[in-house]
Amino acid sequence: MRITHWIDGKPYTDEADRWGDVFDPATGEIRDRVDFASTEVVDGAVASASRAFAGWRDMSLAKRSQVLFSLREILSRRVDDLAAIITAEHGKTFDDAQGEVRRGLEVVELACGLGHLLKGQASENVSTGIDASSARQPLGVVVGITPFNFPVMVPLWMCPIAVACGNAFILKPSEKDPSASLLLAELWSEAGLPEGIFNVVQGDRVAVDALLTHPDVAAVSFVGSTPIARHVYETGTAHGKRVQALGGAKNHMVVLPDADVDVAADAATSAGFGAAGERCMAVSVVVAVDPVGDRLVEAIADRARSVRVGPGADPDSQMGPLITREHRDRVAGYLDEGVAEGAALVVDGRDLATSGEPGGFWLGPSVFDQVGAEMSVYTDEIFGPVLSVVRAPSYEEALELVNANPYGNGAAIFTADGGAARRFAHEVKAGMVGINVPIPVPPATFPFGGWKSSLFGDTHVYGTEGVHFYTRNKVTLTRWPEPSDERALQLGFPRNS
């Protein structure tokens, strides 16, 4: 089947000069072919969005809200349909895919309250007879460039708020699992969104760079790896665009000696191996503070060996395959690297029994102990089911390790000590912090974003920061002179009297 673009409220019909294969990760077989957009296709999508923007911007908030409420109801009915597409192309379990859609739905529900979110401010008599008011206005055509690991949730972090604020939105999804983007487009259309307000452009770097440099694109949101996030940020801002680019992560989970070892091991296993570790908020490093290390490693290893790996559509599977054969091989290569650098490979995910097809992109949970901060399994974002355990003699040295890492997406601490937890939340250099919560992803009412090399730009996604990113402030000063007003001409600044 051909997967193409969505422009002007309908699928794109012209033939593509370039395309890529879309695989079923559970079998290794090619499912579909996805078109890769040329610069001309991108120009057409931007032109469609630009034409539609003016009418949508001027539509009343009440009518925009009706579209968002309708989308919310439609999405609620189609959760399983979207989840099935995610599982088929990404490989994650169906249950996990359902959770992804529902987390995205939370942002749609937030955007339904746009009448409240877009309220400005007003003050009377800021100067004699002059009133001041402010309003947040949409930017125009905005772009979302989203990753393979959350093909529904991450687009729904962006487009509901962007559209609710009055912008026209262009989605450039991952070429690895692109089908969900087209169903999203259909659901927007069914909800009553005017043609051209939500467009989809499939493709690779050609499409990305065309969007980053297009003069009619006002802003770009991105989620992906740090090298590409840096490219998106530098290229977009160099061309005068507002950019938020969320990059990679190396999330640490500190376990203090007073923590419940079973609870901590459960958390590390689920946070490290859920979705095959292909999450920007996955725990990839456990920092075991002496003397908890031996007990904790043993508990994590026992749980890692018991994880059931198989096709995401199989309800008995707890973890599915990785997204591509190349990525699976890359992740597996770190197991050899870690051993060569001196780490202890406690659980080897290559020793795997799976219910899936032998051609699938399988790799089981892997656990390293005695990992050093100079090893590649520690320094690199592996983005797979590989968990590294680092030993630390004290809380202070554990905190220093976390803060010295160039990434700062999320960090967690497991402890029964409220004082230590409060201190960690205050001192750790990360954008999202979990206290006995391994993956501290905020709800839609709070913003999502990291620090350091995990975020380029100063605005996080969704929440009120999402509203601010997709709008700009305008202040109006108003004076209505009385008919008898005969004041002399003033050539200087007005006096505040």
Structure description:
About 40% of the residues lie in helices and about 25% in strands. It has about 500 residues and is of the alpha/beta class. The protein has 2 domains: about 1-245 and about 455-475, Aldehyde Dehydrogenase, Chain A, domain 1 (3-Layer(aba) Sandwich); about 250-435, Aldehyde Dehydrogenase, Chain A, domain 2. The strands form 6 sheets. It has a 7-stranded mixed beta sheet, sandwiched between helices. A 6-stranded mixed beta sheet has the order 10-9-8-11-12-22, sandwiched between helices. It has a 3-stranded mixed beta sheet with strand order 1-5-4, with no helix packed on it. Helix 2 (about 60-75) runs antiparallel to helix 4 (about 95-110) and helix 4 runs parallel beside helix 6. The protein is globular and about 85 Å long.
Secondary-structure map with pairings?
Elements: E1 2-3, E2 6-7, E3 10-11, E4 18-24, E5 29-36, H1 39-57, H2 61-77, H3 79-89, H4 94-111, H5 114-117, E6 122-127, E7 130-138, E8 141-145, H6 153-164, E9 168-172, H7 179-190, E10 198-200, H8 205-213, E11 217-223, H9 226-238, E12 242-246, E13 251-255, H10 261-273, E14 283-289, H11 293-306, H12 325-340, E15 344-347, E16 366-369, H13 376-379, E17 386-392, H14 395-404, E18 407-408, E19 410-414, H15 418-427, E20 432-435, E21 451-452, E22 455-456, H16 463-469, E23 471-479
Parallel strand pairs: 1-5, 8-9, 8-11, 9-10, 11-12, 13-14, 13-19, 14-17, 16-17, 19-20
Antiparallel strand pairs: 2-3, 4-5, 6-7, 7-23, 12-22, 15-16, 18-21
